[in-house]
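Q:
Just now I want nothing more than another pair of eyes on a protein record. Here is the record:
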Amino acid sequence: MVRVKISPQHGKGVFATAAIEAGAEILTFTGPLLQRGQFQHGDYHLQIGDDLYLGASGKADDYVNHSCEPNAGFGKALALVALRDIAKGEEITWDYSTAIDEEDFDGFPCQCGASACRGVVASYRRLGESDRERLAPWLLPYLRLRYSRAALKLAI
């Protein structure tokens, strides 16, 4: 369904080898479980808990790039699903801010090229309210839980 090849904007990227329908599962993120102190800045990692990360798997999931207007997002668990129909040959992207929630993460410049590019990839907690609302359905499970609890506390 996907393969890694050269991305025009991002170095390597993941591309659809066939059309993918909206809602279809594209791939699942895997890799060794790590704590923050077990990897260096610049190493591939995906935050999946407060101090829990997936390291590099050596598979396609290591190369799915960011976009502020992604065509994929997280469904259940660590599965990336199509947010809309994806054409054969199209690069698969997700919004990295749906996984990052480190308090001390200053972000990094975004060069995704999307018409609505925010200009920075930031922790979910640092996004504006409209971006948080738009991205909320596609958060990783630990963030869905954290922010649903936060919403409940505000309502009480």
The chain has a mean pLDDT of 91. The first helix runs from residue 129 to 135. The chain has one domain: 2-155.
